[in-house]
From TrEMBL:
<keyword id="KW-0134">Cell wall</keyword>
<keyword id="KW-1133">Transmembrane helix</keyword>
<keyword id="KW-0472">Membrane</keyword>
<comment type="similarity">
    <text>Belongs to the RLP family.</text>
</comment>
<protein>
    <recommendedName>
        <fullName>Cell wall hydroxyproline-rich glycoprotein</fullName>
    </recommendedName>
</protein>
<dbReference type="Pfam" id="PF00560">
    <property type="entry name" value="LRR_1"/>
</dbReference>
<keyword id="KW-0677">Repeat</keyword>
<keyword id="KW-0379">Hydroxylation</keyword>
<keyword id="KW-0964">Secreted</keyword>
<keyword id="KW-0812">Transmembrane</keyword>
<dbReference type="GO" id="GO:0016020">
    <property type="term" value="C:membrane"/>
</dbReference>
<dbReference type="InterPro" id="IPR051582">
    <property type="entry name" value="LRR_extensin-like_regulator"/>
</dbReference>
<dbReference type="InterPro" id="IPR032675">
    <property type="entry name" value="LRR_dom_sf"/>
</dbReference>
<keyword id="KW-0433">Leucine-rich repeat</keyword>
<feature type="signal peptide">
    <location>
        <begin position="1"/>
        <end position="25"/>
    </location>
</feature>
<dbReference type="Pfam" id="PF13855">
    <property type="entry name" value="LRR_8"/>
</dbReference>
<dbReference type="InterPro" id="IPR001611">
    <property type="entry name" value="Leu-rich_rpt"/>
</dbReference>
Length: 406
């Protein structure tokens, strides 16, 4: 999948490089200063606060097998491993702690209230450690925080609503933790660029109405969200490029409004309980590269318009009940498109479902106009028998869902 280089990834690297550059030019300056006075300048009040915060943090780190925080002693916090300083954006003569990067150092501990003292932080990267507990409410003090990556840790509890109070936040990565409960609708009202919440225990339905969102990447995969994709998904149209809803227990028909997401490059709704046809509107997604509808209960015709999308490189629709491929859809490889059409009801194709399974599906067509969300169809006569629900088999992990690429 071409999903690795999300814009935020590039932004974060650029920001780090900038921070490193600023902090090295700053320390070059202070080194020069030192030559005249033979002692380091006393830390400014900001760095004194940072010292208090980082010592409190160190105290609640219970395991640090690589001795990463061993040099977190003394008042020169800018020399600590994983701590990045830069001139304050408010006052360029004052050096402040602008970044914490503890990615992948296997630390166990929790986040103390004192982290709220690091009010100049722009970046927190704690990816792939063993941090547990909940996020302190004092994080709301971090008014400059731009990137928060807590992925692949052991954070628990309900959605950490404190992140909703961070005015500068653009990149939120909570994937691979043990958060649970419902998603606050306000999450989608924030000016975030990327939202990764996959591989948690979030449950409850997808918010029924998305307000206009600015996110370009939204990954919900491997949570038990349930519910249907609401027509208001179109409110993401101006920015959304990747929508990954793999294995989220969503049901119902794909709303035609999915076709309004004109910037979409990746749409993956595989391993759900979707029914009904492929909306024709998807044929309007000129930038679409990856389309994965596999492992649902969708039916009807695979429309030609989708198969001739100019940028499509992979169209996976195996394990559904499609019964006809229009035109070139029957020969996607001739268009250079990777595809998987196994286990459908395509009469001319190998590796399809049994006639018996297919007949049952044909006898009970889904009427999307009357389908009531929540998995209870209006009539009862148009329900697909549960016995036909395909069993999920393959492990699910796509590059943009895996932790560690921020
Ligand atoms: C960390 O420090 C302890 C105690 O000084 C030492 O025994 C251990 O080998 C160190 N571990 C690493 C990975 O350097
Ligand atoms: C620092 O800020 C002052 C006042 O805002 C400004 O004149 C100066 O150019 C800045 N210096 C740098 C290196 O940004
Ligand atoms: C918030 O930041 C300010 C300024 O750095 C600091 O004085 C204050 O103690 C912080 N509040 C909390 C709750 O950490
Ligand atoms: C689907 O998501 C659930 C969590 O909601 C998880 O337990 C399960 O392992 C996932 N299935 C696959 C095939 O990854
Ligand atoms: C196409 O996408 C599917 C689903 O993401 C993936 O399993 C498959 O490997 C991809 N095929 C190619 C050739 O990239
Ligand atoms: C698929 O397209 C190729 C190249 O255009 C052609 O040679 C082949 O006969 C087609 N196969 C079918 C089954 O139509």
């Amino acid at each position: 999948m071409k999903t690795m280089a999300s814009p935020s990834f590039i932004i974060s690297l650029a920001l780090l490089i900038l921070l490193l550059h600023l902090s090295s030019s700053f320390s070059a300056a202070s080194h020069h200063h030192r030559q005249h006075h033979h002692r380091p300048p006393p830390p400014n009040p900001k760095l004194q606060q940072a010292y208090v915060a980082l010592q409190a943090f160190k105290k609640v780190i219970y395991s640090d097998p690589r001795n990463f925080t061993t040099n977190w002693i003394g008042r020169e916090v800018c020399k600590y491993n994983g701590i990045y300083c830069s001139p304050s954006p408010h006052d360029n003569k004052t050096k402040v702690v602008a970044g914490i990067d503890l990615n992948g150092v296997d630390i166990a501990g929790y986040l103390p209230d004192e982290l709220g003292l690091l009010s100049d932080l722009a970046l927190i990267h704690l990816n792939s450690n063993r941090f547990c507990g909940i996020l302190p409410q004092t994080l709301s003090n971090l008014s400059l925080l731009f990137e928060l990556d807590l992925s692949n840790n052991r954070f628990v509890g309900p959605f950490p609503t404190v992140v909703l109070s961070l005015p500068s936040l653009k990149y939120l990565d909570l994937r691979y933790n043990e958060f649970e409960g419902s998603l606050p609708p306000q999450l989608f009202a924030k000016n975030l660029d990327a939202i990764f919440i996959n591989n948690n225990w979030f449950s409850n339905v997808v918010p029924p109405s998305f307000v206009t969102s600015t996110a370009s990447v939204v990954v919900f995969a491997n949570n038990k969200l349930r519910g249907c994709l609401p027509p208001s998904i179109s409110n993401f149209a101006n920015t959304l490029e990747e929508l990954l809803l793999i294995n989220t227990s969503i049901s119902g028909c794909l709303p035609p409004e999915v076709g309004y997401l004109y910037k979409l490059k990746v749409l993956d709704v595989s391993h759900n309980n979707l029914v009904g046809p492929i909306p024709y509107s998807i044929a309007g997604l000129a930038h679409l590269e990856q389309l994965n509808l596999a492992h649902n209960m969708m039916s009807g015709v695979v429309p030609m318009g989708v198969c001739v999308l100019p940028n499509l490189v992979n169209f996976t629709f195996s394990y559904n009940f499609f019964c006809e491929e229009e035109g070139i859809c029957g020969n996607l490889s001739s268009n250079g498109i990777a595809f998987d059409d196994r286990r459908n009801c395509l009469p001319e194709k190998p590796k399809q479902r049994s006639e018996k399974e297919c007949e049952a599906a044909l006898e009970h067509p889904v009427d999307c106009f009357h389908y009531h969300c929540g998995g209870v169809p209006s009539g009862g006569s148009n329900a697909i028998p549960p016995a036909m629900v395909p069993a999920a088999a393959t492990p699910l992990l796509s590059p943009s869902m895996a932790p560690g690429n921020a």
